[in-house]
Write a structure and sequence with these properties.
The protein has helices at residues 2-25, 30-43, 49-65, 72-100, 104-117, 122-134, 139-154, 164-180, 184-196, 205-229, 238-264, 267-284, 290-299. The protein has 389 residues and is mainly α. The longest helix is centred in the N-terminal third of the chain and has 29 residues, at 72-100.
């Protein structure tokens, strides 16, 4: 027992002497300052992470122990940069994990931190600009980054995460989707940009469902304008004819977009898309059959996608056939009889309303005079719900 007590007393005594010894190593004296500074100088410029850490620890020791020493200023710059790099490395790793796991909220969270120090990083900006396609709650914010990413890419900033066209396709799609709810017509040109870029995006049926639904905006607007512009007896007016021509052009493009969606959709979604397409196609092309719709779907991808129609403000005036010169008559009185070689233009013939889209039969004319007018389909077409994978 006595021996144990003596050992405890000795241990306590050693501990008392050890405290000043440890404190001695942190003192701001010339020997320590020289050793710390030499260790820092020998290692700070090397790229190896382990030696950089040695330099960092030596600099921190110097700075913490000698707060009033002017030499610490130089080392403080190194320490600050090292801290930023370490933080970025941690954030970068978290960002990579978010991308790998398709965690779009974390992509936005950690991506913002990276951009705070690297605002021109085209890869990170592009990823944030595309995140809204995967998470609808991020769409508005994502569209802002999409616009910025397009600027960076077009300015020549390096891009590794995507190919040039692939990035632009996804980014323009984000911007288009952000416009869909408030102003569908404003999204049309953005969606057409996407469809014309050479990337896997142009093979996604959801892109064309979005385009079809974007055309439904001006379709509904023109349909109402058409109805409002009819004469009081519901016959055609000069204004309604022009509006109907513009409406038909929109419907043709709407049909084209739906046909592309059907052609690209998997079997479990294709049936519903074709059913909606058939309704609109048969409205636009009187007398069309399911076989015509099938033919359209089979051939549509071989044709260029039509641009947004340019609105017309008037219909072309039919040019009457020229009247040939008089020839000698044979009616017995010797007078020259006039032969009316040109047929008289029928005032009730439809003008300028042949379908301009891609139906197999070239489109059937829609009557535009008197009671021959067909009421536009308006917004009766069901919405499509095939979602992007």
């Amino acid at each position: 027992m006595t021996r144990i007590i003596k050992l405890l007393v000795l241990a306590a005594a050693l501990a008392v002497f050890a405290i000043p010894a440890i404190a001695q190593t942190d003192q701001c004296n010339d020997d320590n300052k020289g050793a710390w500074y030499k260790t820092f100088l020998d290692n700070y410029s090397k790229t190896d992470p382990a030696t950089q850490k040695v330099a960092y620890d030596a600099a921190k020791k110097y700075i913490d122990s000698c707060p009033d020493d002017p030499q610490r200023t130089y080392m403080q710059k190194f320490v600050d940069k090292y801290d930023v790099k370490q933080k970025e490395a941690g954030v970068g790793k978290a960002f990579e994990e978010a991308v790998k796991n398709k965690n779009y909220a974390d992509q936005m969270k950690y991506g913002k931190e990276i951009l705070a120090n690297s605002p021109d990083n085209a890869d990170v900006t592009s990823i944030l600009g595309i995140a809204g396609l995967g998470e609808a709650t991020l769409l508005k914010e994502s569209a802002t980054y999409a616009a910025k990413a397009i600027q960076l890419i077009e300015a020549g900033k390096p891009l590794k995460a995507y190919t040039h066209d692939q990035a632009l396709a996804y980014l323009n799609w984000t911007i288009a989707k952000s416009k869909m709810a408030a102003a569908p017509a404003d999204a049309i040109n953005d969606l057409l940009k996407v469809a014309k870029l050479e990337s896997e995006v142009k093979k996604n049926p959801q892109l064309y469902l979005d385009l079809s639904n974007a055309y439904a905006g001006p379709h509904a607007k023109l349909s109402k304008e058409y109805t409002d512009s009819l004469n009081p007896d519901k016959t055609e007016s000069a204004q309604s004819k022009v509006i109907l021509e513009n409406l038909n052009r929109i419907i043709d493009n709407e049909i084209d977009a739906m046909a592309r969606a059907a052609a690209l959709a998997p079997a479990d979604a294709k049936k519903g898309i074709v059913a909606n397409l058939a309704d609109l196609y048969k409205y636009r092309n009187k007398g069309a059959t399911d076989a015509n719709v099938t033919e359209l779907v089979a051939s549509v991808l071989s044709k260029p996608i039509p641009d947004m129609p340019t609105p017309v403000t008037s219909l072309p005036t039919p040019t009457p056939a020229a009247t040939p010169a008089a020839t000698p008559g044979t009616n017995g009185n010797g007078n020259g009889a006039t032969t009316n070689g040109g047929a008289k233009t029928n005032g009730n013939t439809a003008t300028g309303n042949a379908a301009t889209g891609n139906p197999p039969n070239g489109g059937s004319k829609t009557g535009t005079t008197g009671n021959g007018a067909t009421a536009p389909a308006g917004n009766k077409r069901p919405r499509l719900n095939y979602r992007r994978g």
